[in-house]
Amino acid sequence: MSTTRTATRRFLPALGLLALHFLALVPATGTAAIQRDDAAAQPASAQQCWDAVYIGDSKVGYTQTSYVREEVDGCLCMRIESHQQLEMARFGQTVRLGTHFVCLESPEGRVHSFTCRTEAGPTPIVVRGRLADGKLILTSINPGKEIESSWPWDKSIRGFFATEQSLRRQPMKVGEKRRMKMLFPGLTQVQVIETILEAERLETTA
Predict the structure, then answer these.
(1) Those residues with Cβ within 8 angstroms of residue 36's Cβ, 6 or more apart along the chain or in another chain
(2) Angle at 158 (CA atoms; ends 27, 198), nearest 5 degrees
(3) 143-151: long-range contacts, CB 8 A cutoff, minimum separation 24
(4) How far is residue 166's CA from residue 66's CA, in Å, rounded to a whole number?
């Protein structure tokens, strides 16, 4: 099934550097693609998938994502953990980037907390977020300092994996359109984007 996606971004202030999403590193003349291997036989309470990341015909890394149901403070949550490792040549040098995400969500996809860790140099950069009193409390841990800020929270906002979770819960039908707000890792901060998924037609894949 073919989908289209557009995004309107709103920035969360005072976060410092966060995860560099691999699409931000794709050169203008290149294209990026993902090949996915889902473990379909695993039980719903524990699932894992692997993505191979390509720029053009060159494989530049991988992403491993796991979905585990667990109880947190008496509530059933979905723990989504994703690790991405990229390695590519830019301007004659080899660039290595590692990102690690952990997000706790309700079964409906509402965010409880998250941690983002970026390894793009000698010292990792960490941003933690948690919901309290109707606000998103953010803690940015940069080399030598720790900054805390808050942002009014909209309950309709979903986590970093909202598109995947939406399609897992209910595959789209031809002609269907979905609109959602979700967290997105930016170059220097966490963002809130609006995503539109539109199922245009059915396609046969190998």
Answers:
(1) 49, 50, 51, 52
(2) 65
(3) 147/14, 147/15, 147/16, 149/12, 149/13, 149/14, 149/15, 151/12, 151/13
(4) 16
pLDDT tens digit string along 6-29? Answer: 333 333 333 322 333 433 333 333
Do the beta carbons of residue 111 and residue 103 sit within 8 Å? yes
For the segment 149-160, what is each residue's pLDDT rounded down to a tens digit?
898 999 999 998
Q: Higher model confidence: residue 17 or residue 5?
A: 5
Residue 12 DSSP SS3: coil
With 0-12 / 13-18 / 19 or more C-beta atoms within 10 angstroms meaning exposed / middle / buried, residue 20 is buried
Report the DSSP pairing between strands 157-158 and 177-185.
parallel
196: amino acid identity, one letter: I
- CA 53 → CA 41, 58, 63, 146, distances in Å? 23, 9, 7, 32
Summarised one tens digit per residue, pLDDT across range 36-84 is 444 433 445 678 889 899 888 889 999 999 999 988 888 888 999 999 9
DSSP letter assigned to residue 14: S
The answer for residues whose C-beta is within 8 angstroms of residue 44's C-beta and 6 or more apart is: 69
Return d(Cα 172, Cα 174) in angstroms, integer: 7
pTM for this prediction: 0.70
Q: Which two tokens stand for residue 181?
A: 């707000």
